[in-house]
Amino acid sequence: MRLPKSEENAPAARAAVDIFTKCHEWDLVKKAIAGGYYPYFIPITGEQGEEVTIRGKRFIMLGSNNYLGLTNDPRVKEAAREAILKYGVGCTGSRFLNGTLDLHLKLESELASFLKKPAALVFSTGYQTNLGIISSLVGKDDVVISDRLNHASIFDGCRMAYGKTLKFRHDDMADLERLLRHAQPRGGKLVVVDGVFSMEGTLANLNRIVELCHAHGARLMVDEAHGLGVMGEGGRGASEELGVLPQVDVLMGTFSKSFASIGGVAAGDQDVIHYIQHISRSMIFSAALPPPAIATVLKCLEILQTEPERRKRLLANAALLRDGLRGMGFDCGKSVTPIIPVHVGRDDICFALWKGLFAEGIFVNPVVAPATPPGHALLRVSCMATHTPAILNRALEKFKAVGKSTGIIGG
Q: Among this protein's residues, is 226 annotated catalytic?
């Protein structure tokens, strides 16, 4: 049999490449594990509270997004239990088909009311929420403009979208204005920003961003994953904190932080949410949020609104921890939230600081590229409403000792 011309001309001895070769040769993590400084996928035994158990040892948890401390609240657990008894443990299908419960509709109604938007739509994860919103709204003639430090799920949503993606320098309003002025799509413009930046603990300059969007005919989407339950008088996020909630066209939030569960929400105009509901692939082709997760969010939403003191304790704890770290000489950047970065710079120093704290019973998260720009490694420290001042002061003493021993702060 005669080979096609393309194969006749190909080198006779072309070696086949095993697609798994890169997997076998990639040894970065193996070296870290062998060296005792691998900080990820650490199994926690038991409940996720202000303290946790790891390998039989108690740790002060300063690496969780459990901001309001509701994961172990008896009322929340009971709500999840009752939902299981009534609805079972899962929905076994997409919201689009058999997976929609009256419980989903109740949550969407209550979230729309809480977020002061005409409509809301619940997704199974926060990651899917960003993918679904952006890929649905940004068509081939449109452009999406994103802050360079936005969450990875936002950039993945941009990749899934058919439109063009532009990135502006972090928090650089002049750069955003330049992009808005020069972008001339045949379609529309969507600006997307984190309300609270998840590694820096800072707020987006939403007042100026709203002005620029209005001036240049762009719509605005704000990711309030780390803002809901934390910022704003009613816990509606950075958008409420900065007084621009009515001007935000699409508000996104997640349930895996203050709401002690999993899932996400898109809130906005009725027609916009209706469109996303029927176009979003991450909605249509994913199983629905299970009943106990929905019931958990509903109960947490109730507690957030009836116990405002919980959010105030969270912010007081954050101030105690942040001021204490800064007072010792740690660089905590411009954080104004319960997310407190300890900027280190070099990866090896970051891991050394993490390892020293871990040995002392402090759980924090080391963050290196690509989650941060190269050369900007940091420890991500966060607190909860349920931490006591005594626990936080004990943690600060450990930070002081380890910081001195590693040379990050002075003696």
A: yes
